[in-house]
């Protein structure tokens, strides 16, 4: 990575030879106008990653660079960026808000400072992941009026948070928003940050995830109250930690594992008509009714979500988790929203993936490009074909797919070639 990183730094400092002046437009737009101290971590990392990704920074290097810049930002006195306490005074507890554009200008300047220093004296960096996980991602609005899905692919989890405990981690998430994209955007920005701060991350990953989901839901509740937001989001997350695969979920987005060409059930999605979910809602005094589909109190078609505060606790913010030991014979894990799984059965996935892998690629096409040298993507071609299949099978919803190969795709093709099966 070092040579790639040095080349990137050369280009970057040529574009940003000095810090940004106060009158210069930011090169990337912050997510919010106002940000709490707790939200600053996730929003700054999001801003930095977007800036560096758009300029072709190597994945592990951009994570390390953002972590270094954030550490320097948090060493500053941020009180000059505090917003006046007026509209926020009706909060149950006083929340200090920062002027986002001003504080993010300071963050970007810290990032530029780090880049300039590293260009002059390249540092000893954190170890990069030794196990490359090829990944294929594709998302479409489909026939819906708006795209309300968000996704995260973070093979550089440790590097982004400066974790040096010797256990490699990769994080992947799909969030399926409804009633707007705000909740999905918020979860995609903050949930992995909340997870990184859990003390039980290594010893009890399921508890860490449940706490991270709950904390993110509580954080979004404060934002939703002060900004009058009403959206919600389901979510499914996979954390690959050493030889352990943890799935955490709220709602009806799903993840499945394929091992030796066979789909393995990892989870049971939360749906209002699932018997235990229906019983839970009714025990709380709510109801589940059929109105074109099964709905909680005649409103939401999901029984668990981040957000949807007008229907809490019936629409629960409590996540479920499952933990699977990786034995080395796993092919891949697939994460997708219900727009995919409403049209495609999990048992169909293995053949669909193999069919997509066997399609000839166009070397001149970015979409059909072979495995990229970064080791983190096979391009969107495989996921794109799966999305196309779901659409052809009748899905009209937003569709997002993340396909994470636990062994190189070439091995799967070689195995098919040897056995003669598809």
TrEMBL record:
Cofactor(s) recorded for this entry are:
Mg(2+); Mn(2+)
Keywords recorded for this protein, A-Z: Cytoplasm, Hydrolase, Magnesium, Manganese, Metal-binding, Nucleus, Phosphoprotein, Protein phosphatase, Repeat
Presence of keyword Kinase: no
Q: Name one GO cellular component term.
A: nucleus
Annotated compartments: Cytoplasm; Nucleus
Q: Any signal peptide, and if so, which residues?
A: none
Q: How does it assemble?
A: Heterotrimer. Interacts with PAX1 and ARHGEF6 (or ARHGEF7).
Per its UniProt record, what PANTHER family does this chain match? Answer: PROTEIN PHOSPHATASE 1F, PROTEIN PHOSPHATASE 2C
The protein's name in its UniProt record: Protein phosphatase 1E
What species is given as this protein's source? Collichthys lucidus
């Amino acid at each position: 990575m070092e040579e790639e990183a040095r080349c990137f730094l050369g280009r970057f400092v040529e574009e940003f030879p000095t810090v940004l002046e106060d009158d210069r437009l930011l090169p990337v737009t912050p997510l919010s106008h106002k940000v709490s101290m707790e939200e600053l971590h996730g929003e700054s990392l999001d801003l930095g990653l977007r800036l560096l990704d758009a300029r072709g920074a190597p994945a592990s290097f951009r994570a390390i660079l953002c972590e270094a810049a954030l550490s320097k930002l948090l060493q500053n006195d941020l009180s000059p960026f505090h917003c006046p306490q007026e509209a926020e005074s009706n909060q149950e507890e006083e929340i200090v808000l920062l002027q986002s554009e001003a504080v993010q200008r300071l963050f970007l300047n810290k990032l530029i400072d780090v880049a300039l220093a590293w260009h002059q004296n390249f540092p000893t960096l954190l170890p990069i992941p030794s196990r490359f996980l090829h990944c294929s991602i594709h998302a479409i609005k489909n026939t819906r009026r708006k795209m309300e899905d968000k996704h995260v692919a973070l093979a550089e989890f440790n590097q982004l948070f400066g974790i040096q405990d010797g256990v490699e981690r990769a994080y992947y998430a799909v969030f399926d928003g409804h009633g707007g994209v705000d909740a999905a955007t918020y979860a995609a920005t903050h949930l992995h940050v909340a997870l990184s701060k859990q003390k039980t991350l290594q010893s009890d990953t399921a508890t860490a995830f449940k706490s991270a989901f709950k904390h993110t839901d509580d954080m979004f509740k404060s934002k939703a109250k002060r900004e009058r937001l009403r959206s919600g989001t389901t979510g499914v997350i996979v954390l690959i930690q050493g030889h352990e695969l943890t799935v955490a979920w709220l709602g009806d987005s799903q993840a499945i594992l394929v091992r030796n060409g066979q789909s393995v059930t990892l989870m049971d999605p939360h749906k209002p008509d699932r018997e235990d979910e229906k019983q839970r809602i009714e025990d709380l005094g709510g109801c589940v009714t059929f109105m074109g589909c099964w709905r909680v109190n005649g409103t939401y078609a999901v029984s668990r979500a981040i957000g949807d505060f007008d229907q809490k606790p019936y629409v629960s913010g409590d996540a479920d988790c499952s933990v699977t030991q990786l034995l080395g014979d796993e092919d891949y894990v697939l994460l997708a929203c219900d727009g995919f799984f409403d049209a495609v059965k999990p048992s169909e996935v293995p053949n669909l993936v193999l069919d997509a892998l066997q399609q000839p690629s166009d070397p001149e096409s970015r979409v059909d490009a072979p495995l990229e040298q970064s080791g983190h993507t096979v391009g969107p071609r495989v996921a794109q074909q799966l999305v196309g299949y779901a659409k052809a099978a009748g899905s009209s919803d937003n569709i997002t797919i993340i396909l994470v190969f636990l062994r190189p795709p070439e091995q799967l093709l070689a195995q098919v070639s040897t056995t003669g099966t598809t």
